[in-house]
């Protein structure tokens, strides 16, 4: 029994390593890569979680350790929690919004598949921003356009990978994948607006009942 358990554990670890390596393939061959990622089970949530964690850590280093000529933020007010929310928030919102939308348009992907596709699409940004952190200490002000060009390439690459991921995960045409991706972004905005409205109403309600309670206590004490 122990030998079998160890065998399964080693096989699971090998699959985890292979699925991490496969993220490089999805960057180079996105259409084939994202199809195999989900439909051929070449990816894994464990690898996706690892990529996201590495991206968050890399982003913290990128913002705090880059040369001031490239990124100049007040470190005394910097918060790692903000970086965490700024990365996980859009990812989770998009996963939910895209899943809700694509279920109405015969999409085949699950929330976990969408999350995994987003995570694997982060790999070019992870690599390029890691390079930008160290290149910012080498280039001069006159050469700053090199960093700008690399930064834009990483963003464009990410957006293209997201569209390819949605196409292959849901088995859509490219046009339908682009449309549902844009609609998912719009749905994210609506979800954030509803959440803010709900938060504002709850906050006002709490403030109202707190004031009411304070007034009642004041009158009781006076009486």
In short:
The protein has helices at residues 2-28, 30-39, 45-65, 80-102, 111-121, 123-135, 144-170, 174-222.
The helix count comes to: 8
The proportion of strand residues reads under 5%
Q: Uncertain spans, ≥5 residues at pLDDT below 50?
A: none
Radius of gyration from the alpha-carbon trace, in angstroms:
23 Å
Helix content: over 70%
Q: How does the major sheet shape up?
A: none
N/C terminus separation: 76 Å
Order of helices and strands: HHHHHHHH
Counted beta strands: 0
Number of domains: 1
Bulk shape: globular
What class do helices, strands and sheet pairing give?
mainly alpha
Descriptive overview:
This protein has 223 residues and is mostly helical. It has one domain. The protein contains 8 helices and no strands. Helix 3 packs parallel to helix 6 and helix 5 packs antiparallel against helix 7. The protein is globular and about 75 Å long. The mean pLDDT is 86.
Features:
single chain; 223 residues; mainly alpha; 8 helices; globular
Write the layout of secondary structure elements.
Elements: H1 2-28, H2 30-39, H3 45-65, H4 80-102, H5 111-121, H6 123-135, H7 144-170, H8 174-222
